[in-house]
User: Fold this.
Amino acid sequence: MKVGVVVFPGSNCDQDIIDTLRGPLGQTVEVLWHKDHDLRGCELVVLPGGFSYGDYLRSGAIARFSPIMQEVGRHVERGGYLLGICNGFQVLTESHLVPGALLRNQERHFVCQNTWLRPVSRTAALTADLDPARAYQVPVAHGEGRYYADDDTLARLTDNDQILFRYCSATGEADDTANFNGSRQGIAGVCNAQRTVFGLMPHPERAADLDLGNTDGLPMLRSLLRHIGAA
Assistant:
């Protein structure tokens, strides 16, 4: 599969996901600059983490107007696949490619730590192969990661199986301590109704190397690639 990784001014996790895709996942990767107008035939596009345009205004609010996002929007309209990680998730919500918004963390400070995730959706490509009874440890690094959606939207997300992950304890239980940023219902990631656009705040690409002592992110990315490759 050919995967495109978009680089915005201020992206700082682009090389992490590029190395993970090329290394243990064995994918062909195209690096796409934010001013490009050509996705170069990529079947999956990734918006990486970082601080696009310095996170001025709101995180992702300027990046949504980058020239390449016009092509990304057309890619999604054609049924193409799109993954947004951390700042990439923020760009997705600002672009209205997934429901909801990402607000400042409840304690109003930047959080950089390992967290635990419980997969929720059984139909989304990113979670389909994961064990729903298991907690996966994946790091986060964000100041605006508190997922918000109104009650009607949350009900639709639940009914349509669009909730990808919830924050949990190491044993898989949801509680206020696990939900460190105050996200509604502890939501850490969602997808669109067509299950072609996926956004999550944690960084699976930073949990994909034995040298880092954690490979919990690899099953997520493998599940995504396997299921969209078979689509």
